[in-house]
Amino acid sequence: LTRKDLAGKTVLVTAGPTREPIDPVRFISNPSSGKMGYALARAAEYRGGDVVLVSGPTALPDPANVKTVRVRTAGEMALAVFDHMGDADIIIKSAAVGDYRAVETAAHKIKKTADQLVLTLIKNEDILKSLGERKTHQILVGFAAETRDLKENAREKLVRKNLDMIVGNLVGHPASGFGSDTNRVTLFFRDGSCEPLAEMDKDAVAHIILDRVRERCL
Ligand code: PMT
């Protein structure tokens, strides 16, 4: 059964990790595989949406019929997202964006002569928070990857970042979060309610997220 309930809607999805360079051969990153975000992009395309996927470095192929923009750093992701936000009706930020980057990137490979190496990091722009400040008509869905206090942290981000919905993702479990084919999430809504989902494939999670956007946010 093909549902075309997102026909005429432009959906902007972010996926994957970012890489913040230290020198030409090293970077700071995280274990995001992109699977959750790519599942969302494929599901939105299947349901008739015009989909733009802004992706950090992943091993996944570009989804069919999806405009895929590949970026590396959080700064590049921010530029690509702000570039496409005006056309979007729905924005879903599943990317694991680096919170900090190195103040200085060495022009050449750092030699391992010193016993200790101190890196100074500076905060990256919070893309989701900026989207929450700038949004006009867009439905804004964030993710919250947490290792504890999921409910409190997710609710705090939902309000502080001016989101319509947030997907709370308890990470650090082999069948949920980073890298796995399955995920276990709780959806949090503006009215204070929440919906815990069972463990299921990321494709199934993606469709339920889009169902709730349709039913509760559009
Ligand atoms: O890619 P997979 O291997 O499939 O793993 C999926 C996932 C675990 C990465 C995904 O389900 C998930 O939880 N993504 C959010 C990861 C994250 O960065 O969470 P956070 O709680 O640190 O950030 C909260 C929200 O702010 C996120 O929507 C994030 O995209 C956004 N953010 C964060 C920092 C920043 N500088 N800019 C942002 O936009």
UniProtKB/TrEMBL annotation:
The keyword Disulfide bond does not apply. Signal peptide: none annotated. Its EC number is 4.1.1.36, 6.3.2.5. Pathway: Cofactor biosynthesis; coenzyme A biosynthesis; CoA from (R)-pantothenate: step 3/5; Cofactor biosynthesis; coenzyme A biosynthesis; CoA from (R)-pantothenate: step 2/5. Residues 6-215 form the DNA/pantothenate metabolism flavoprotein C-terminal domain. GO terms for biological process: coenzyme A biosynthetic process; pantothenate catabolic process. CTP binds at D99, K109, F143, K157, K161. It catalyses: N-[(R)-4-phosphopantothenoyl]-L-cysteine + H(+) = (R)-4'-phosphopantetheine + CO2; (R)-4'-phosphopantothenate + L-cysteine + CTP = N-[(R)-4-phosphopantothenoyl]-L-cysteine + CMP + diphosphate + H(+). Its cofactor is Mg(2+); FMN. Residues 11-218 are annotated as: Phosphopantothenate--cysteine ligase. It comes from the Bacteria. Binds 1 FMN per subunit. Keywords: Decarboxylase, Flavoprotein, FMN, Ligase, Lyase, Magnesium, Metal-binding, Multifunctional enzyme. GO terms for cellular component: phosphopantothenoylcysteine decarboxylase complex. GO terms for molecular function: FMN binding; metal ion binding; phosphopantothenate--cysteine ligase activity; phosphopantothenoylcysteine decarboxylase activity. Catalyzes two sequential steps in the biosynthesis of coenzyme A. In the first step cysteine is conjugated to 4'-phosphopantothenate to form 4-phosphopantothenoylcysteine. In the second step the latter compound is decarboxylated to form 4'-phosphopantotheine. Catalyzes two steps in the biosynthesis of coenzyme A. In the first step cysteine is conjugated to 4'-phosphopantothenate to form 4-phosphopantothenoylcysteine, in the latter compound is decarboxylated to form 4'-phosphopantotheine. In the N-terminal section; belongs to the HFCD (homo-oligomeric flavin containing Cys decarboxylase) superfamily. This is Coenzyme A biosynthesis bifunctional protein CoaBC. It comes from Desulfococcus multivorans DSM 2059. The chain holds residues 183 to 400 of 400 of the full protein.
